[in-house]
Amino acid sequence: xxxxxxSDAGGDWLRDLLAPVRKRLGEVIALSFIVNIxxxxxxxxxxxxxDRVVFHGGLSTLQGLVIGVLIAxxxxxxxxxxxxxLLRAAATEIDVSLARSLYARIxxxxxxxxxxxxxxxxxxxxxxxxxxxxTFSGLSxxxxxxLPFAVIFAIVIFxxxxxxxxxxxxxxxxxxxLAWYSGRVVRAANESERRAVFDRDSMMAELIGGRTTIKALxxxxxxxxxxxxxxxxxxxxxxxxxxxSDLFIHLGMTMMVLTTIATTTVGAIAILDQELxxxxxxxxxxxxxxxxxxxQQLVTNWRTFAATRQALARLGEVVNTAEEPxxxxxxxxxxxxxxxxxxxTFGYQAGRPPAIREARLKISxxxxxxxxxxxxxxxxxLKLMQGLYRPDAGRVMLDDADISQYGREDLARAIGxxxxxxxxxxxxxxxxxxxxxxxxxxxxxxxxxxxxxxxxAISALPDGYGAKVGEGGMELPGGIRQRIAIARALLGxxxxxxxxxxxxNLDGQATARLSHNLQALSEDRTVIAVxxxxxxxxxxxxxxxxxxxxxxxxxxxxxxRARLTSGAGGRA
Length: 572
Prior knowledge:
By secondary structure, the protein is an alpha/beta fold. The chain has helices spanning 12-17, 19-38, 41-56, 59-108, 111-115, 119-137, 139-146, 150-160, 162-209, 211-217, 220-272, 278-300, 302-319, 378-385, 408-414, 429-433, 442-451, 455-459, 478-490, 508-521, 534-539, 557-566, and strands at 339-346, 356-363, 366-372, 393-398, 401-402, 415-418, 496-500, 526-530, 542-547, 550-556.
């Protein structure tokens, strides 16, 4: 598909994304350094209490030590709060930047790319963005900030309790090895779980989207087995991932306890040999906990790091995708509306027969009907004319210029398009008609509603143009939705108007009125309608016939209608 990577591909997007973190990195490191220095206060306090206060009975010394350690704890709390605010601020900037970039890429991506993946996949990208934000603002970010300062605690242990310091040096490689290996296992399990959850959520999206069909055909029973299989697979993968994660967490906790036992054992021997004091051993155990705990947390949080890495990879795939330009090399003023298909071929997937084969056609001002059997390529041809798809071979020309030279916004203004399956946005009828031009006047909106033959139906509603359409327009009849979509396409006064089965939901009277209006519109613009309606075909000046992705015949409407009626060219 057309998911080519832009020139700024690679790690540039990630570098820009993490700029807020880099901007505050110096402050975070400085605060983390002070926090970890202050963390030495409590072990030193314990050391002094055991070795000086208890041994010598120095109550005044104890008073001074308590005051000092309380001051240190107050500073520690304030600094941790400050560091947390810095990380949250950076994470918020990351979240905003990433959300804007995702929105721009998703809305600006070629239609062929958007259609190549299910809706649930695109929705999951915003959950990936939340994963990234939470990682940079939560305990995982604090862990990364604190981990390098374990060296400070190791140095202090060597100073106050050298005989037991070697125990911690011995367990460092074991914790690092455990964290590395758990990362490999948990990352693979995490990805398997995500795929299973995605399959389940995709099916649920289909069930909700097709709720009318499911209710009408009572499909909840037949669909239950497929749903339960996918849900069971998601649960099974979740349990497998949880079992792997729990295994390494428990191993890490066991190693941490063993480290304490080893430290106490070695320290006890050193005390008996008069090489170490009891206070020094207790302080060493406390400092050792500050060394071992980050590595234990590293094992525990590895799933978060793995999920973040995978999320960044998926986000990078989308962020590095080139957007369709809003403006093209050619500026659009008022076009003549001539569309020329120059030997156009287009396929949805490589290795499969093309949907459009060597199409040649030139159409200008007038009302033209596009007919053919289902699957003959009519809808695909309209999308090629509108620039929603780009041909694999040949050219689509608009007023003697290749359509690729126009930007997406230019084409949207110049070519109005009404798909077969209309979609309305939640809101009012007025807002849906004026969605591309919110500043459109009421007169303009009423005018296009008249042209689409929907003004009377809207006026008959209690709230008129202020009536709510509901999700996807579900609160309105299909015929009104169809004509609102036509009015929406007409609002920008396009030179070319492409309509896919515009009368599919209309009764005979509404079809006749729309056909008359389209005839009037085609006097100074090019109107192409995919239709099977005899009334609309009767109004057409020319008819184009498609079969198997090819344009097999085109000509004046009277001749083509006679051909279609006789069955010589197939049925419309």
